[in-house]
Design brief:
This protein is mainly alpha-helical. The chain contains 10 helices and 2 strands.
């Protein structure tokens, strides 16, 4: 038996009610992790980008850190799907797992190449992001490749259609907002500018809003506890980071638009 066959045999052995219970507990843990992170970020700014600091370990090049830390959320689900059986082969599972993998293919393989002279990433921040992607890659990948069961007409169900549209629109907003942020400075310029255009006309954290919408859409399309836990964790963490950004903008620019919300248009 080859290495691949041995790995798949292991996943077949551990499959069952005990692993399902483990996934449920890990889902609760993911929500708790998000809530605890949101609370902590009220007192300690997340050390990345403009907040980067050597206090949190030596600094890694931004492109390298982004690629490596996001990669487990691409590779782990693909590996689990390769070992999957009838569940992984079902079309709803294929499409939903494909949504997750597509996001992280962009995040780990394309997004890092688009970074322009990004601020270095502290090693501590890199490790936390890497561990999160391993954790969540297993959680979503294992759920969709082995346990999530859908009725034959699920792809026509309003829940799936609404959720898929939410995922697609959210990802588009996220990518477009990142594009705006990358192009704030012209070649040779330094310093920070007020983002304008797209969803930045409504919220300070337009890229965060896009990702939050994306994962709540994904959760609706999946209808699993694992996907809902991921969406809630995303809301907690990115909501806190958006508030951090919003406060920074208000302190940095006297002419910052006072009508902009933090991360949810017209609401928060």
């Amino acid at each position: 038996m080859g290495v691949g066959g041995g790995v798949c045999a292991f996943w077949r052995r551990v499959s069952g009610p005990e692993e399902q219970r483990l996934l449920e507990l890990l889902s609760y843990g993911l929500v708790a992790l998000g809530a605890a992170s949101a609370l902590l970020l009220r007192f300690i700014p997340m050390p990345y980008g403009r907040y980067s600091s050597r206090r949190f370990g030596w600094l890694l090049p931004a492109r390298l850190a982004w690629a490596l830390q996001e990669l487990p959320s691409l590779l782990v689900p693909l590996g689990l799907a390769a070992c999957g059986g009838a569940t992984a082969a079902a079309w709803p599972n294929r499409l939903l797992l494909g949504c997750f993998v597509l996001h992280y293919a962009h995040r780990s393989l394309i997004f890092p190449l688009l970074i322009r002279a990004g601020k270095p990433t502290p090693f501590f921040t890199f490790v936390l992001a890497l561990l999160f992607c391993v954790y969540n890659g297993y959680l979503q990948g294992r759920s969709l490749s082995n346990y999530a069961k859908y009725p034959s007409g699920w792809l026509k169900d309003p829940l799936f259609i609404t959720g898929f549209i939410g995922w697609l629109v959210g990802m588009a907003i996220n990518i477009h907002s990142d594009h705006i942020l990358r192009n704030l400075r012209k070649p040779g310029e330094t310093g920070y500018k007020i983002p304008r255009g797209g969803m930045f006309e409504y919220v300070s954290g337009a890229n965060f809003f896009g990702e939050i919408l994306e994962w709540f859409g994904f959760a609706l399309a999946c209808c699993t506890i694992e996907s809902l836990a991921f969406a809630l964790c995303t809301l907690f963490i990115l909501g806190s980071r958006a508030k951090q950004h919003h406060q920074w903008y208000l302190e940095k620019f006297e002419d910052y638009p006072k009508c902009r919300k933090i991360v949810i248009p017209f609401v928060y």
